[in-house]
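Case study.
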Amino acid sequence: MTTESTEPAGASGSTTRAWLRERSELGVCVLLFALGVLVLADALTMDVDIAQRGPIGPRTVPFVVGAGLLLVGALLAVDVLRGGRGEAEGGEHVDLDEPADWRTVLLLTGVFLAAAVLIGPLGFPIAGALLFWGSAYALGSRHHGRDPLIAAGLSLFTYFVFDNLLGVPLPGGPLMGVL
Amino acid sequence: MDSLNSLIDGFGTALTPMNLLWAALGVLLGTAIGVLPGIGPAMAVALLLPVTYGLDPTGAFIMFAGIYYGAMFGGSTTSILLNTPGESAAVVAAIEGNPMAKGGRGAQALAAAAIGHFAGGMIGTILLVVLAPTVASLAIGIGAPDYFAIMVLAFIAVTSVLGASRIRGIASLLIGLTIGLVGLDQMTGQQRLTFGSLHLADGVDVVIVAVGLFAIGEALWVAAHLRRSTGKPIPVGRPWLGRADLRRTWKPWLRGPVIGFPFGAIPAGGAEIPTFLSYVTEKRLSKHRDQFGKGAIEGVAGPEAAASASAAGTLVSMLTLGLPTTAVAAVMLAAFQQYGIQPGPLLFEREPELVWGLIASLFVGMVLLLALNLPLAPVWAKLLRIPRPYLYAGILFFAAVGAYAVGGESLDLVILLVIGLIGFGMRRYGLPVLPAVIGVILGPAAEQQLRRALQISDGSVTGLVNTPFSVTVYAIVVLIVAWPLIGRLIARLRGGRKAAEENSTVSGG
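After joint prediction, the assembly is written out as follows.
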């Protein structure tokens, strides 16, 4: 008896999930809505009595933008529920028939964050080389000899061109201290 | 004649050894990065923005213009040899150019494209010289309400004319406006959306937004859907044209710019529409109509000339009104803001050396590009062999360099990544990226002009529409907004008449 009663429930659960997956764009509406609330809340908590100059203060435009976000979030939800779909962007290297490869995206995000953390202590040449090497690895390159060499070469070359030729300072880190 | 004198002065600026060097470096970098598949001109200029940080404004913009035109030249090489257009404007070049290359006429296709770009760029830039000072002098008296009206026009045009879905365009614009709000209010110093963070009080740099949305967002999006099978570029020799080909191409080279230039100047999506119109025109006028779709050289020559001329048209609106009509123009506007220069009618008065040096360097860059591209096309084509992991790792690498060079803070890299993830989500759900970038760049300026206008009129809304210029601009805005309704109405009227005619013929017969 229990199996009989759970089965329809499970089926309806999976249909809800399928319904939601089909309309995952509703998540965009939720985000737009949340962003709108955030902007409005920030505007409401502003202390403007002293700062006000002219007929329009610093709160007016945030009010308009926040309200606009709420409105667009609602309108987009209506559009999605009516069957409207945002078209995923195509491209020369993009294959939309395959499901999204989240592992690669997560790896790239991790590598990028690591580089952001390491650029301070290790300097640009090392952090940049790690960024390139890690990204190439995440994207499927498996030349264990060639990849790090290219990464190091590119990073050092960029460092010298920017720092010496173009006058854009980048942190050298301990490596440049040694050389 | 006045503008001719200014142009000669401009050549004096552009032909100094240093500026010549920057122009050459710009076209080299632009061509190289334009040839790389997957990188369109907008991403190219965003990625290369930091290269110009250490330069004086004139040198920086001369280099920038070279990058822009170079990226367009290089893009057609990719379309023809790999059948993979880097952006929508290059789609047409692939339609005829790639069959030509497959049929062993790649050299001719490349030559027709390169000379087409040269002709289009030359004619377009001449029109820019003739028209821009006139437009600027017409707009010279414009004030806060007029500037605000132009920015409203930019917002409406970018959300309504481009893309498939208006509501998604507006959503993207609002995301951009929100990012633009972050930081200290320019007029009162009030903190907005900073959450007490000192770093955010400076606002989010537009370069970080542009690089994040165009480069990081694109790289992550491609990484999630990377095509495993790869196309092979078609090997090609040195570009040249025989007499028979020249006879077929010279008219398209001259016709293309006429179509391309006006479309570049108005906010109608840049080179996409004019290249297509040029293609259709050439198809209709050609004596070799049967070759179209199988490699007709007219179909390469005309659209490529139209694309370059539309780039020049884009510069007219950008320099004289501060109105960016394409993604590249938006990034260039961000670059101007980096130097604290406001493009607009006063630019020609305040910065004559910069503007005319920039325009003159366009001519210089065009000649350099032709000299670079015709003999060296096979060398550039080698870039097509770069493995895709390296390509996208390189994009991430240079995006990080650019964002870090803005302020030397690693927190900027985290913000860059967050904006890149937003760009990823936008691509997934069909939200166009350009409205967001325009929102970030023009949003704060629009707010300032709005408040200034209302301050002058003491809070009365009529202060926004008290000049003929602003009224005209708002009329255009209304027209754009109402256009789908008008179109539907016309279709209905026509349909009704047709139905009525059918009825009458039925009853008559």
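Observations recorded in class. The helical segments of chain A are 2-22, 26-44, 60-81, 102-122, 124-138, 146-165, 173-178. The CA atoms of residues 88 and 99 of chain A lie 12 Å apart. We will return to this complex in the next lecture.
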